[in-house]
Structures are given as structure tokens and as C-alpha cells.
Amino acid sequence: MSIWFKPYKLADLTAHIGMAKHLGIEFTELGPDFLRGRMPVEDRTHQPHGILHGGASVALAETLGSYAAMLTTDPDKYRCLGQEINANHIRGVSSGFVIGTARPIHLGRRSHVWDIRIVDERDKLVCISRLTMAVIEIEPKN
């Protein structure tokens, strides 16, 4: 059973604005209860030692979790806003892509908690992140 508000298709999703665009984040798979995407590990996402910047991992995690949260709610009635994120950086990566998968831990009426696991191209764990999203009702316009 799908958790999404309506039957979205991967083609409906684009990471074409802001930080997601700048970092080269793209969505790669929309499953019944997860959203997956990838980000290149290159100059834009490196820290000074030539490995993936922890902030870039967090940006990937928040992008995936935020979009996933939005897909579970009625976009005409609710906005989903990041409230808290944490990340544990497990392994360094210097090239290729990292792949993140966002899955819900809790989908409440006022808040969501998402688990985002980021792996390298060999499926080795790079980062684990947890994102809390506030689900805010849109004020009707008079």
C-alpha cells in the first residue's frame, strides 16, 4: 500500500531549484513507501580533504525527507517544513555518487519523522540521518 497522497510518478518530481539543483541532486526511484535519490561526489560536494562534505550529506537527506513528506500530504492544505535534522557520518567517499533513501518512521497529522540512509555505489553505509518535519495547515486566503 502506498503512503503517497496521490499516485505520483517519478517524472512528477524534480529537484530543479535551490540547493538541490546546485548540488546535482536527482530523484531516482519512488517506491510505495520510500523516495530515493542520488548526489554526485565531486568538487561541489567535497570538503577540503577531497571527501564528501557532511553538510552535503545533510542537504541530500533533507531534500529527500522534505520532498517525501510533501508527497504524503494534500499540497493545497498543508506545507511541510523541516524542524530538526541530525546525521551520523559513518564512512568517507571521494568520488562517484551517494544514494539516499527516505522512509517514514512516523506520519502524524502535525509532524513526521523520516529515516534517511545514504550509501555509496557499493551499498556501503555513508550516513544515517533522521529528519523531523512540521506539517503546517495553510491559512485560507480571504
UniProtKB/TrEMBL annotation:
Lineage, top-rank taxon, reads Bacteria
What Gene3D superfamilies does this protein map onto?
Answer: Hotdog Thioesterase
**Record Pfam families:** 4HBT
Q: Keywords for this entry?
A: Hydrolase
The residue ranges of the Thioesterase domain are 49-127
What the entry lists under CDD domains is as follows: PaaI_thioesterase
Hydrolase among keywords:
yes
The Gene Ontology terms for molecular function here are: 1,4-dihydroxy-2-naphthoyl-CoA thioesterase activity
Q: Name one GO cellular component term.
A: cytosol
Q: Which family does it belong to?
A: Belongs to the thioesterase PaaI family.
Q: What is this protein called?
A: Thioesterase
